[in-house]
Please model this.
Amino acid sequence: MSQEKLVEVKGLKQYFKAGRKSIVKAVDGLNFDIYKGETFGLVGESGCGKSTTGRTIIKLYDATDGEVLFKGENVQGKKSKQELKKFNRQMQMIFQDPYSSLNPRMTVMDIIAEGIDVHGLAKNEKDRKNKVYELLETVGLNKEHATRYPHEFSGGQRQRLGIARALAVDPEFIIADEPISALDVSIQAQVVNLLKKLQAEKKLTYLFIAHDLSMVKYISDRTGVMYAGKLVELADSDELYKNAVHPYTKSLLSAIPLPDPDYERNRKRISYDPTNHDSSEEPEFREIRPRHWVLCTSKEFEQYKQDLAK
Amino acid sequence: MENMLEVKNLKVSFDTHNGEVQAVRGVNFNLKKGETLAIVGESGSGKSVTTKALMRLLPKPHGYIKEGEILFEGMDLVKQSNKQMQKLRGKDISMIFQDPMTSLNPTMKVGNQIMESLIKHQKMSRGQAKKRAIELLHLVQIPNPELRVNQFPHQFSGGMRQRVVIAIALACNPKVLIADEPTTALDVTIQAEILDLMKDIQKEMDTSIIFITHDLGVVANVADRVAVMYAGKIVEIGSVDDVFYNPKHPYTWGLLGSMPTLDSEEAELFAIPGTPPDLLNPPEGDAFSSRNQFALEIDFKEEPPMFQVSETHFAATWLLHEYAPNIEPPASVKKRMRGIASTASGPKGDEQ
Model:
């Protein structure tokens, strides 16, 4: 894998006002890079800020502080219409709910071609049609589907439409926000296999946001674990699952139910108590092993190191 | 063991504009005292409809029980009047729904919602009922129950609300508890807590549980026996070990194969191609045949009967017929089955 950085997230903060005085710190100081051609997984419980992170990276929200660099250029901050258009072509998003993310009054043809129209990618009507047909075939549907409306499709098929729409403008980077959570188990595997196939064919880079850790582990090269708006641990997926050091990651891993009755009978659940952390200093993001980062204080850092050595 | 519930050849249909949708097409199972039976399947497989029929909660007038018997302690629930069912619901058989956000009344204090069935079924006074409500909140591990009993649902988090729903369901010590995807809307860590809680309570009260879910991990955690449903029928049923370590039906293979494991490195997941059949016009033969890469010619013509694999294990697939060719599960599934079996064989051997 090349180590060229495609996306750099630096000190990203996204606060929301909740009522007159209180502020929700949905994302509170994130730092990570996404390399070209990799799949970066982001996991955490609902409310930990993982979706907000995705949405801020693609500039659906204006960041409170910090910056997001895409190919070295800042995404946040003021942009001319043209710059924004150029940026939007390179970065696309697949949403969680295939039922609410497709306009029910548009035909599949118009939904998929919307991006093509906006960016003027089709030479003429015939070219536009052919492009849509090709996209439909890429995602495992066929051209007869183009004249239909979203309600005529099943959940899995709709998610394929969402993927086709994202691919329409030939992006380099796709943010997939829980793309399979709303689908049935047997259909989940179909969609994940499709995403993997497309990545190999089109050299795509993914940010894969999910709460299903086993799926994230399967699809991601590297995985970051978020808790309360912060990354608490980041490592290559294998390393993270084998040698998790942060107590929150451990508790999350111990909570995943696996389809193995014997494992389940002997499972020991670890619960996480955020008040157990060393509070003598502000925790920092430190590299505990090459490419394996964890949020900890210097005292905890020494302890985690010892744990790992065992 | 004593059978709490016996379901015989249950058929449920819905009348729609386009005709009759045969949601459940002949389901047979029984539920023993103190056991957990998990029903798994995709959306539309009829698992929720089956349990709604058990409670006689099918939407009227479109949904109806076409055929079959539901025997609860020898009494056929299909034949009971609405009034009699009202006496049973919440007392002998109760239900936990998927979404704790919508199954609680937002305008009623949590305590009153728990007390409702106590006052109605057990003829308690308000004072007694409130005391019992506090005990129940304590049982489902809600801190400060004395204070919480007077609060409204919006003051509870999702996991806490599901605990309240469980407390309501347990209020009258039901003999049968039906849990319809009780943890699907919750985070994994909260899910693990709720599952542990349900198991503890079951041990204490000896309740029989029907647990509906599509998550095989959850099944492995809670179930004693598993029924796999597809297109309105049970295609495989057996003990949790039978179904996970020795699956016989190609659909079960597909379900197991489509979940990634945490320690393996498959290049591609084994996906079941296509989509479930339309139950408006159920296909001829085995409903799974069109998605089944191991389908035999007979699968498209005739429906397979239930074949007995072992004393506890049954599966409806022609592959088990004595004349059927010997077909092995797909390599990815098999590797995984063997992987699981080899890690499992150690401690199991010691016990026997």
